[in-house]
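Why should sequence recovery work at all? Because a backbone constrains its sequence more than one might expect. Tight turns favour small or flexible residues, buried strands favour hydrophobic ones, and helices have their own preferences. The token representation captures these environments compactly. In the example below, the structure is given first.
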């Protein structure tokens, strides 16, 4: 059954179908929320904010109009706004790394020095992404982590496709510039996890 068919039936009173719709998108929305929170060391809130996203979606499903956007785009937009609202609330609260739930884990065969360097790199990339303006950060997360196409990102952010491409170019350039002092390499390797797609 398509999203549209389910939504029509839910609006007509078959509310049990919302749990099917939820299961269809739960992993993607949770991953998106997690990655948005990760740059602020607030990953532990991901499940709560994912649940809040679905609660808000259920409460306002009557306002959803398929002509304006697909259900997934609408849902991502709710998730993004929910996370941004929480980040604004927490903006002045510093969460120490040891309380953030972030526990560096390395395979046992990796030497301790390599594990430390790897964790430092992860933290530097996280910090660089966190320093990006909100729209650049969201575009980068949606593209690199959620693998959404340009049109979907444009719909979620309320931008044109060319604006999204520009946001991504600026985001990647900014991250690269921030990390260049640490990763300068004559071979010009890509920064881990960042591509010029």
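From this structural description, the recovered sequence reads:
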């Amino acid at each position: 059954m398509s999203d549209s068919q389910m939504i029509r039936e839910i609006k007509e009173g078959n509310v049990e179908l919302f749990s099917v719709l939820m299961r269809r998108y739960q992993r993607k929305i949770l991953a998106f929320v997690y990655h948005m929170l990760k740059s602020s060391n607030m990953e532990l809130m991901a499940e709560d904010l994912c649940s809040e996203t679905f609660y808000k979606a259920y409460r306002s499903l009557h306002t959803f109009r398929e002509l304006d956007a697909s259900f997934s785009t609408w849902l991502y937009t709710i998730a993004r706004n929910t996370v941004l609202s929480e980040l604004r609330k927490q903006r002045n609260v510093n969460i120490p790394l040891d309380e953030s739930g972030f526990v560096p884990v390395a395979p046992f065969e990796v030497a301790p020095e390599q594990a430390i360097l790897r964790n430092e790199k992860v933290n530097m990339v996280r910090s660089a992404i966190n320093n990006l303006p909100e729209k650049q950060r969201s575009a980068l997360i949606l593209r690199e982590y959620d693998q959404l196409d340009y049109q979907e990102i444009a719909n979620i952010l309320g931008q044109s496709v060319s604006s999204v491409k520009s946001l991504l170019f600026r985001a990647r350039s900014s991250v690269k510039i921030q990390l260049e002092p640490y990763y300068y390499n004559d071979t010009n390797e890509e920064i881990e996890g960042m591509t010029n797609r």
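A few observations help interpret the result. The CA atoms of residues 33 and 183 lie 28 Å apart.
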